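Title: Comparing notes on inverse folding

I've been comparing how different people in this forum approach sequence design from structure. To keep things fair, I'm posting one structure and asking everyone to reply with a full sequence. Here's the target:
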């Protein structure tokens, strides 16, 4: 493990997914302690996207933006996280990339199992594409992306948009995405005590999200048999993360299907460790996410 990250291990909170309400409180407290980003170059607005039910979003518009945008999904196993806990990261992504970031407050499991979160994300994508002119966006430069569970939801939205001939997606920004409920890879089977998120917590998260329903490619994108025709992707993995091997396998399958992919495996890191902002490797991870989005949305 990177020595700078290892020094933080005693201070990491214990998130118990057996109690979703408690997990949400822990994350909210930890997010409130994160130094806020500099949003002086952004206009930030809260809206509700018309859907059934309405989906809350927080939009971060760079005043000197380039017209590109990303529909951004927070992490949290599909069980915790919201617009406020994602605020530091969505703001940094907008500030660092120059793209408009549409952060989505999707419904959470277990109260709202699959397909609630995916439906919310897809509704926001369709809304952004359909209202691009009034939002000041280029409809040909809209990406999807997210951290962890949010990355898995983003990948599922890309599959659905392809299959339903829905809104055009320029790019996928997938950071340590949760893609496979089966947990059959080496990292999923062996990383039983990794920091912050381990295989046991991954199992609990999938149990909450599925609630006994069978998984499909729109829940767990690794189950998709055909990955052709999907948007170019940036896939980032953490070395000590249960999702690592399923993410690398998905990136390879995308490439084999003719999709352009940039795959970045970050050595010495663990799931979510990019949140430890004082570590040099975390700073590089966050900067690279912004740079990848700039490249992916370039004219």
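Reply #1:
Here's my take.
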């Amino acid at each position: 493990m990177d020595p700078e990250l290892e020094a933080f291990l005693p201070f990491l909170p214990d998130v118990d997914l057996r109690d979703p309400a408690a997990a949400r409180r822990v994350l909210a407290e930890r997010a409130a302690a994160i130094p806020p980003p500099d949003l002086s170059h952004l206009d930030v607005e809260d809206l509700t996207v018309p859907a059934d039910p309405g989906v809350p979003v927080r939009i971060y518009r760079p005043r000197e933006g380039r017209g590109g945008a990303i529909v951004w999904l927070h992490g949290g196993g599909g069980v915790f996280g919201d617009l406020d806990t994602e605020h530091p990261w969505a703001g940094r992504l907008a500030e660092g990339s120059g793209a408009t970031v549409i952060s989505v407050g999707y419904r959470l499991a277990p109260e709202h199992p699959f397909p609630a979160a995916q439906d919310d994300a897809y509704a926001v994508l369709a809304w952004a594409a359909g209202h691009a002119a009034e939002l000041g966006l280029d409809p040909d430069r809209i990406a999807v992306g997210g951290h962890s569970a949010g990355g898995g939801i983003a990948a599922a939205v890309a599959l659905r948009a392809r299959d339903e001939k829905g809104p055009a997606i320029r790019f996928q920004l997938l950071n340590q995405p949760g893609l496979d409920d089966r947990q059959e890879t080496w990292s999923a089977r062996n990383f039983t005590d990794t920091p912050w998120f381990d295989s046991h917590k991954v199992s609990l998260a999938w149990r909450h999200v599925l609630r006994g329903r069978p998984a499909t490619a729109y829940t767990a994108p690794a189950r998709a048999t055909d990955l052709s025709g999907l948007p170019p992707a940036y896939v980032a993995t953490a070395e000590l993360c249960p999702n690592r091997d399923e993410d690398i396998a998905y990136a390879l399958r995308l490439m084999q299907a003719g999709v352009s992919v940039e795959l970045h495996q970050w050595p010495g890191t663990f799931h979510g460790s990019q949140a430890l902002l004082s570590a040099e490797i975390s700073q590089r991870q966050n900067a690279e996410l912004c740079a990848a989005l700039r490249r992916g949305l370039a004219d």
